Amino acid sequence: MKSKIKYISFYNHVDSEFNRASALSAVNKINYVIDTLNELDYDVELISPSWLTKDNNVNYVKYIKENIGRNLFVYTPSFRPVNKFFSTFNVILSILWLILYLIFNCKKNEKVIVYHSPLLIIPISIVKKIKGLDIILEIEEIYHEVWSNNKQFRFFKEIEYSFLQKTKKAIVASDNIQNKLNLDDLNTIKLYGAYRVNNHKTKDNYNNNIIEVVYAGGIEKTRSGAFNSIELISFLPSNYRLNILGYGSEDCIDELLQKIDLYNEKLDNKIIFHGTLHGNDLINFLNKCHIGLNPQNLGDYMDSAFPSKILTYISNGLNVISSDIEVIRKSQISDYIFFYQNMEDVSSFQYKNYDYNIVKVLHMNFLNHLKLLLNDH
Question: How far apart are the first and last CA of the chain?
Fold first, then answer.
């Protein structure tokens, strides 16, 4: 018999008519969870408080409900943030709308999945108190650790810590998150990324002229993965070409392009920026590549977050080169990753033809554990 479940997150469907605030890495993972819930015969009601971004042609959209396949996607009303006033007002409107929507549409003690975000703490806490929601919290990172150097987040530490300490059931991105929150194994599921096995082509052309290396992810300065990729490629053989796929602020992208131009003068134009790709376009591109990069800066902020791009690489048959991050070393996929401590270490990298059956194993484990969690074991 079909069941229904609500899933709350900042989300925008890839085929949506409007652009809303969301992270592609989160959307990819959310889509995987939705697909898995469908596989378990759950219809999903995805409730998104994501507001419009500036790059829309309309100044206002009302509350939206749209059915896609067997799932229902519900979006907050929102204004286009043409200035600071509307940017702030959108956040307030989004939070108030979410509180009211959940109060009027959730049953007492209803089980819901919540994708953890700083802005969801207050509305979810309020509705939980009123409706007694049974929450499965999906925790990708502990934000006050990730943004500990950001002044805006310092006051937020105690609020988030108190909220997370009340968690009883969780989907977590790493063992470290589980250990920090003292979550028991029975009520905790590990989800490093989307456990999809794509029908990738065998990388038979590895020994041919050009070896395609890719960085796919956010373009920002805290982790600096895209920027570090540019430096890293200079330590790999001359026939290795770097492709950067990503999204970020205009300032960061401009700075990245300047760095690409600088290095291309020395590296014979072997670095290419492609902008943002998602869905089948991303999969088709990754099928042409051999190696995926995860060269993130190390720091306390990496103590819990697991880079989901690694699963995207592995699911598409790529070898992975990563900076030496503890949460990845402790994961079940560490044997499939080449770790480096200093960039020059990658000069010893050797390509391997792995059997990525581990992704199928991780998916079945996630499927079965999620089924138990949804049915209270």
Answer: 18
> β-strand 78-79 against 111-115: which pairing, if any?
unpaired
pLDDT above 90: residue 11: yes
Measured CA distances, 61 to 22, 75, 176, 303 (Å)? 17, 10, 40, 39
Distance CA 33, CA 23 (A): 15
| Measured distance CA(40)–CA(2) in Å, rounded | 9
Interior angle at CA 349, CA 259 and CA 24, nearest 5: 50
**Residue located via tokens 């200035």:** 83
Compute φ and ψ for 189, nearest 5 degrees: -120, 135
CA pair distance 299, 301, nearest whole angstrom: 5
Cβ atoms of 137 and 167 closer than 8 Å: yes
**C-beta separation of 273 from 252 below 8 A:** no
Listed in order, strand segments (DSSP E) in 1-133 are 3-8, 42-48, 60-61, 64-68, 71-75, 78-79, 111-115
Residue with tokens 């080169």: 321
Q: Which of 51, 136, 120, 130 is nearest to 86 (CA)?
A: 51
CB atoms within 10 A of CB 38: 15
| Tens-place pLDDT, residues 285-303 | 999 999 999 999 876 556 6
* Residues contacting 240, CB < 8 A, separation 6+: 210, 211, 213, 233, 270, 291
Strand, helix or coil for residue 309: helix
Helix (H) or strand (E) holding 98: helix 84-105
- Per residue in 4-24, is it b (16+ CB within 10 Å) or e — as a string? ebbbbbbbbbeebebebbbbb
Identify whether the C-beta of residue 304 lies closer than 8 Å to the C-beta of residue 141. yes
H/E stretch holding 259: helix 250-266
Express each pLDDT in 55-82 by its tens digit.
999 999 999 999 999 999 999 999 999 9
Cβ 356 vs Cβ 311: under 8 Å: no
